[in-house]
UniProtKB/TrEMBL annotation:
PROSITE patterns according to UniProt: GNAT_YJDJ
Pfam families given in the database record: Acetyltransf_CG (PF14542)
SUPFAM superfamilies tied to this protein: Acyl-CoA N-acyltransferases (Nat)
All residue ranges annotated as the N-acetyltransferase domain in the record: 11-96
Signal peptide, first to last residue: none
Lineage of producing organism: Bacteria, Pseudomonadati, Bacteroidota, Flavobacteriia, Flavobacteriales
Domain of life of the organism encoding this protein: Bacteria
Protein name from the UniProt record: N-acetyltransferase
Length: 105
């Protein structure tokens, strides 16, 4: 994660069902669904003003830390999150082994 994002807090916006960070009034976020012991990450997006800044990667990394700290398992349905974990395989530790595609990470 780029240094400029390290001190930006992750917010779990339960109303909009997304994890988000706010950078200069603009948002990078991941839509999620939560059930019991699992959190599904569905879609990652950064507002156009944040394009190319690394904000999307930052919100993904912060969300993965949140999931790990919560003791839940991840279902990475979002292609961006899936690719992030494939690129950073240490995060496979929080992916639910029952996830269809687990062996491809």
């Amino acid at each position: 994660m780029k240094a400029e994002f390290e001190n930006i807090p992750l917010k779990k916006n339960e109303t909009l069902k997304r994890f988000e960070i706010e950078v200069n009034g603009h948002f990078a976020f991941i839509n999620y669904k939560e059930n019991g012991t699992q959190i599904s990450l569905i879609h990652t997006e950064a507002e156009p003003e944040l394009s190319g800044t690394g904000a999307a990667a930052a919100v993904v990394e912060k969300t993965l830390y949140y999931i790990e700290e919560s003791g839940k398992k991840l279902l990475p349905f979002c292609p961006y999150v899936f690719a992030f974990i494939k690129k950073n395989p240490e995060w496979k530790r929080i992916v639910d082994e029952k996830f269809n595609g687990y062996e491809n990470i």
